[in-house]
Amino acid sequence: MSKISIVFDRLRTEEKMLQKAAAELGHTATMLDAKITQINTDTKKNDLDLGDVVLERCVSYFRGLHFTSALEFLDIPVLNKFDVASICGNKMFMTLLLKKNNIPTPKTYFSFSSESAAENLENVGYPLVIKPVIGSWGRGVMPIKDKDAMEAIFEIRDITDSPHDRIYYLQQVVKRPPRDIRIITIGDEAVAGMYRKSSGGFKTNIALGADPEICEITKEMEELAIKASKAMGGGILGIDMMEDEERGIVVHEVNNTVEFKGLAKVAKRNIPKEMIEFALDYVRK
Amino acid sequence: MNCPECDAKLNIPEDASVGEIISCPDCGADFEISKKEGSNIELKQAETVGEDWGE
């Protein structure tokens, strides 16, 4: 029997599913609330008693990332690894790495001030989609269709001026059916896929009400998902793709703390069980 | 158990765990279960959604 720790900051269905799957496999899964866990530079691995491997499942990117850094400092195996979490949590880092690994991804423009982003947009032409480099669930993702919209959005960013507001990530609008594809990869396997159909607007996030529908993973999707996973450094990931009418499948996002409760209900394979098995295999290798 | 904000009755499932979020059906306030020992449950104000929340 092995012991797994699941680090959380907001206990969701997914974490409970992972704990249940571990129990069904005859292992123990302990929940650890990152918000009340204390670590210092003299902490030793055995002080925390986190078992064989840790699944980092915080909903807050920065909390999870920093917690992971502490675990790796203590030589505690954690999934996903710090480098993977760090890259996937930042859309700019992730996009650059996709491109560097020759994975088709939407053309994206980067600027580092509102003036430069405005110039970039005027040169490229409207529309482009602006996305916050940090964040998820489609929040802050907006199509910029004309100069008025651009000026309004950029002015708000200049006023709020959080560190990430100074990074302008502008992406081409991909001509595609009103849906995208989410593939869950565990290690070198694409284990389940779903279409996420828009509920009216151009966003297809489940968190915003998009309808999930099972997707039979084609060879092309599988190859791209595995390639994207490897490019990020592997582990347990959610690969998002779009069906570009001109280029075929493009990968637009890789998610580090993948949510899967909807997909798990309809998937042929047991997603939480496979995640637990993978985590234990990861430390045995 | 009643809502600390509006005193409405909270529906806390028996199998709820520490760390889970309970929403008040009347005022919509969110609370996190901070302690659970048998039927003795303690709640704290849940964190609001942060800029860095998500997948």
Brief sketch in words of this structure:
The complex is a heterodimer of chains A (285) and B (55). The mean pLDDT of chain A is 95. Chain A is of the alpha+beta class.
Report the portion of residues of chain A in β strands.
Answer: 25-35%
Give me the oligomer status: heterodimer
Overall outline of chain B: globular
Q: Identify the biggest protein-protein contact and residues per side.
A: A-B, 29 and 14 residues
Report the order of strands and helices of chain B.
EEE
Task: List key phrases describing it.
heterodimer, A: 285 residues, alpha+beta, Rossmann fold, Dna Ligase, domain 1, D-amino Acid Aminotransferase, Chain A, domain 1, 3 domains, 5-stranded antiparallel sheet, 4-stranded parallel sheet, 10 helices, 25% strand, B: 55 residues, mainly beta, Rubrerythrin, domain 2, 3-stranded antiparallel sheet, 3 strands, 0% helix, 31% strand
Give an overview of the whole structure.
The complex is a heterodimer of chains A (285) and B (55). Chain A has 285 residues and is α+β, with helices and mostly antiparallel strands. Chain A folds into 3 domains: 3-87, Rossmann fold, CATH 3.40.50; 108-172, ATP-grasp fold, A domain (Dna Ligase, domain 1), CATH 3.30.1490; 175-256, 2-Layer Sandwich (D-amino Acid Aminotransferase, Chain A, domain 1). Chain A contains 10 helices and 13 strands. Chain A has helices at residues 13-24, 45-48, 61-73, 82-88, 91-100, 114-124, 147-160, 219-232, 261-266, 271-284; strands spanning 3-8, 28-33, 53-56, 78-79, 108-111, 128-131, 142-144, 168-172, 179-186, 189-197, 211-214, 236-244, 248-255. Chain A has a 5-stranded antiparallel beta sheet with strand order 11-10-9-12-13. Chain A has a 4-stranded parallel beta sheet with strand order 2-1-3-4, with helices on both faces. A 4-stranded antiparallel beta sheet of chain A has the order 5-8-6-7, with helices on both faces. In chain A, helix 3 links the parallel strand 3 (53-56) and strand 4. Chain A is globular, with a radius of gyration of 20 Å. The mean pLDDT of chain A is 95. With 55 residues, chain B is mostly beta strands. Chain B has a single domain, classed as Rubrerythrin, domain 2, CATH 2.20.28. Chain B has a 3-stranded antiparallel beta sheet, with no helix packed on it. Chain B is globular and about 35 Å long. Chain A binds chain B through residues 8-11, 15-16, 31, 33, 59-63, 89, 132, 134-137, 139, 162, 164, 207, 238, 255-259, and chain B through 17-21, 32, 46-47, 50-55.
